[in-house]
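Appendix B, example 12.
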Amino acid sequence: MNLYVRPAGMIQTNAYLLTDPEKGEAVLIDAPGEVWAQIEPLLTKDRCRLVEVWLTHGHWDHTQGAAEVVRTTGAKVRAHADDRVLIETPEVMKRFMDLDLRLEPVKVDHWVGQGDEFEALGSNIAVRHVPGHCPGNVLFHLVESDAAFVGDALFKSSVGRTDLPGGDFDQLERSIREQIYTLPDQTKVYPGHGPATTVAMEKATNPYVHD
């Protein structure tokens, strides 16, 4: 399996493209604005068809490019139902963002939740609910690869902001301690913004939530 990290959109949100050239399939984790132009050449190079889009949460910078990607590829979408309003009626976000955003609704094919497991690209995927930054924030844990895609719950040496509607720092701290820090220490953590880190590193050094 190949992993490509492609920051995209107005605030350079990380999009993660997983490709499996042997299977000829790929998955996109989060879809910031104009991401399709970046991932299309990678899909062509690896001779893969995009089969699914996984949204870690419903904030506009993670979903703005999803409608174009789905229209172009027919990929199915997974997300958490607590962010249904943000994903299906994204114009509500314009009320609290001082930006002139072009946002399109996205149809979710599979609603995921805490404890869900499924298979993709030959890997076992476990879902954990990590609210606090956004009500429907989830992480997707690739069990055999020791990799977790956590959205905006946790960053390298930081955590997601909690001053937007639906944010709650106490809830975010619980989510991080109970759902992220209980992953194996060696797990690579891929956040919605910035560089990757590990569970062990954040447990030891994160200034907001640490052991």
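Residues 2-205 form a domain with the Metallo-beta-lactamase; Chain A fold (CATH 3.60.15.10). The two ends are 33 Å apart (CA to CA).
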